[in-house]
Amino acid sequence: MKLLLVEDDELLGQSLVQGLRERGYALDWAHDGRHASRLLSSAVYDGAILDWMLPEVSGLDVLRRHRQRGGRTPVLMLTARDATNDIINGLDSGADDYLVKPFEFSELLARVRLLLRHGNAQTSSIIRVADLEVDLALREARRDGEPIPLTAREFTLLELLALRVNRVVSRLDIWEKLYDTDEDPTSNVVDVYISYLRRKIDRGRTPLIETRRGEGYLLRGETCDHRSPAGS
Predict the structure, then answer these.
(1) What's the CATH number for 126-219?
(2) Angle between helices 59-68 and 84-92 (to 10 degrees)
(3) Structural contact between residues 91 and 99, judged by C-beta atoms closer than 8 angstroms
(4) How do residues 71-86 score in pLDDT, each as one tens digit?
């Protein structure tokens, strides 16, 4: 999944970029409101993490303009403002969620996962396709109950296919969701990662990952009812 981070604090921004990329997210980082507005109007993101207090243009104004243009990117607003009126103002301006600084990185990750599920109309944290189970909250996969060890990038690829089960996902779409904007989209890295994932998911079992020549890839299988983990 591809995120836009809008944060002018260099140390916090670097920490968030490193942590999110280590967990398999593709990420663009804007340091001010004008840059953020340009990126939101020219690229497609699965979600945005948007700081309220920014140079040039405030995060709140960035959000308002994005919504006025019809932008539907799910937005998690970050701010030190914790007054009730500020929270209401942010949500009424189009934020999907709100996180007050300082925060724990684990909470940010949980908010991002929720943001992405809502953006994909996915109400549960578990997707089941045939005998494959993809746990979006724990970022784990199992097939016929057996855990499948995946790297962060491999899981992100599986997550993308699972959220669009039985629909073709083009190589370009995969690239745009999994890699940063400044990386070279002409390489065969998408095909390589599909190969890695196929060996782990399909090895010795009924194949679920299908190649559509000239179109892309899809995860094929009968979908079971989505369910949340016990106790959630």
Answers:
(1) 1.10.10.10
(2) 30
(3) no
(4) 889 999 998 877 778 7
